[in-house]
From TrEMBL:
The keyword Protein transport applies. It comes from Desulfocapsa sulfexigens (strain DSM 10523 / SB164P1). It is a multi-pass membrane protein. This is Flagellar motor component. One of its GO terms (cellular component) is plasma membrane.
Amino acid sequence: MKNKNFIGLLLCILIFCLGFFINGNLSLYFNVSGILIVLGGTAGAALLSFKIEQLGIVSKVLRANYGKKIKKETEIVRILIDLSIKSRMQGILSLQEEENETSILFLRRALGCLVDGYKVEQIRDILNTEIYFFRMRREDSERVLRTIADFFPAFGITGSVVGLISMLGGIGDTSVILKAVPIALTSTLYGIVFANFFFLPFASFLRERTNQELLLQKIIMEGVIAIDSEMNPIILRTKLESFLTPSERQETLVSYQKLQERFNIKA
């Protein structure tokens, strides 16, 4: 995770906890029974819904995406242009340091197809298939996270029902009611917090990261195909910069005078 994101997260957590502290003692919001009901129920539902291997894959994907930053679009464009003019090869050799990064693995696969002499149609078909199944795998991981996020509020309500039943069973006994009330109230709180503060943001982050990597893969595919057709590096740069936002481009716009001369426009 980027430093700015981490600092922002800590600040938001402090503000969030401050909201609890202002209205009373923080210890009032901690209840072991409520936590066990929510976490135990959600974990059991997740194990019934998904394979352990699939849950392990989701965990690895999250750790990898939060722990590593992906290359920017401008960096990928620069690498492809360097390849097209067969110079500054150190830029390619430096990719070995980030060999496990998704976009770099995709670039190496694309270059492998190019070196092995595949036809343009074959390269495009192979890389499109790679992109399709990469998106499918990521969407599957996101679906797992969103499903687990849906489990939390449900088991929070379950904890509340358990607390209410205990309260009804302890009518006339104040000590039983006082023990049951925290379970009924905190369970719903835990379910909402775990779902909306953790798992739904995890799923949203994974979708955003997936979209970024899909864009990089599209740039790589178009760049490698253009290199195979021996496109002029200047034309290639113009083509690849179409994927970038206007602020990231280094292009110089044609003057109005040249446009008038080219299209014979009279002032």
